[in-house]
């Protein structure tokens, strides 16, 4: 058994491939027989990358889009369609979690390989992102809209609060593990950098939103818990947003130097819109949430007891949310242009990553709806209706395209670890010598794999 040492950050290719640039675009895009025959279920499970949670993210956000229609909000058709998508989301999330469990049970060696992969590991963060709109569907839709648990039921509200708290803890855990792996294991270079790096921290931005929306309702039942939710949500959003902004700067530098990412990674460019619009909506809602909590009527803090503090924080939140809405317009245009440009050049490969547009676009529609509420603007009302309908119709179209291909087994084409192994790609990993504290580069040989 042999090993080679190299300081290079780029993936190495085994001797059976002649050059990285010549072969990878052809051999890493999926199962070799996908055009000729169905992939066996065992192979589908082996190729079931965490990027499939892009699909559950899309399902989840559509449930919320039904709830934020400006006109005919109480229409029974909307409410029934909401229920259909809500329970469909529950079914799909459960099935995909089961398939992931099956993947790492049947192929236990993949668990470490996925976490050590510089791209595929990032997509685990799509799971907590999927939970947040689903949780909003429980609190805003099942409870308040349908009144199944009793309108604004305290017990159901506490249940959804617990669900949200558990989701944020999961989001923090995944973000920390990915952050640690990126520093201590993954060896990167600028050319191979993608928007997927944003995902673990974008998930924290999304996680904070649900607590923000719950805060005014918690205030009616438990002011202390409402304060905890608001502060926890603020901390989560600020940590996620600050880290995401730093990584977006690196992504911009990468594109200035090396151009747009390849077709297999280009859909991750939508992560930029996901962060900007979700942060904008959350900060917008945080302003309203703190306005219900402030000023406090206890203590000696001149800041918190000032009669105008609630309105000041409210104005700051609404203004900053509006600023991020403008930034989101640029992010939306960039995402569409990037996917269009690369797909025209390299071709469109349909897989779970193609769902990456649906969640951020749906959040942008909800963000626009929030602007309509806070500014009492007819322009934003009309625009939000157009964006919400576009999201619902676009998501329905994605379902119609995806379901047949999923059951035919012809779209399991985004398993980075499996594809890289098939192509003979070897990644250099960082290895820290704990005795002397020296970092070395380790590139496993073909035999060691």
UniProtKB/TrEMBL annotation:
Q: What is its main location?
A: membrane
Q: Which domain of life is it from?
A: Eukaryota
Q: Which GO terms describe its molecular function?
A: sulfite transmembrane transporter activity
Task: Provide this UniProt record's keywords sorted from A to Z.
Answer: Cell membrane, Membrane, Transmembrane, Transmembrane helix, Transport
Annotated segments matching region Disordered:
1-20
Q: How does it sit in the membrane?
A: Multi-pass membrane protein
**Cell location:** Cell membrane
**Pfam families per UniProt:** SLAC1 (PF03595)
Q: Which GO terms describe its cellular component?
A: plasma membrane
Transmembrane region positions?
Answer: 51-68, 80-102, 156-177, 197-219, 225-252, 272-292, 312-340, 347-367, 379-403
The UniProt entry's sequence similarity note says: Belongs to the tellurite-resistance/dicarboxylate transporter (TDT) family.
Q: Please give the name of this protein.
A: C4-dicarboxylate transporter/malic acid transport protein
Which source organism? Sistotremastrum niveocremeum HHB9708
